[in-house]
Design brief:
151 residues, elongated, 34% strand, four-stranded antiparallel sheet, 20% helix
């Protein structure tokens, strides 16, 4: 088989796979998960099945979901540092004063979420990096290790 036939066969197979999976077209295909829950006057939008299960479950833990009408409450509390370079993040969210950076974090039913900076809301943190283990260790250039963990 010559090279042209191999390339053509690969192109056709790739196109078929993308079309079958909903990709590769210019349509408005949206594969994102979204489920709403209303408790009293607050409506939550959960964007993952795990978050939806926690929110809709007995505990009604909607901490990993977005409020439909976002709050403007900025997280200002500083995270506890009971041991040097060990930061405890809460479910209400807090600001981490790291050696080389400032991060804002929150613990949810999905795990630990972090976003660089301060003056952030819970809704903004939902777009931050997710660490499903609930903790993170950062080793700095001087071999100092900073630990960030859910409280």
């Amino acid at each position: 088989m010559n090279m042209k036939k191999i390339v053509m066969a690969l192109t056709v197979m790739t196109s078929a796979v993308l079309t079958a999976c909903g990709g590769g077209s210019s349509g408005s295909f949206n594969s994102s998960y979204e489920k709403e829950f209303t408790f009293g006057t607050q409506t939550y939008i959960c964007r993952s099945e795990k978050a939806a299960n926690a929110c809709g479950g007995a505990s009604q833990d909607c901490s990993a979901c977005d409020l439909k009408t976002p709050s403007t409450n900025v997280i200002t509390a500083v995270c506890a540092e009971p041991i040097a370079n060990t930061h405890k993040v809460t479910t209400a969210g807090c600001v981490l004063k790291l050696t080389n950076d400032t991060q804002t974090g929150i613990c949810t039913s999905e795990g630990l979420r972090l976003l660089s900076g301060s003056n952030l809301t819970k809704e903004q943190l939902n777009k931050g990096a997710l660490f499903t283990s609930g903790s993170l260790k950062i080793t700095l250039a001087n071999n100092v290790t900073e630990t960030i963990t859910c409280n």
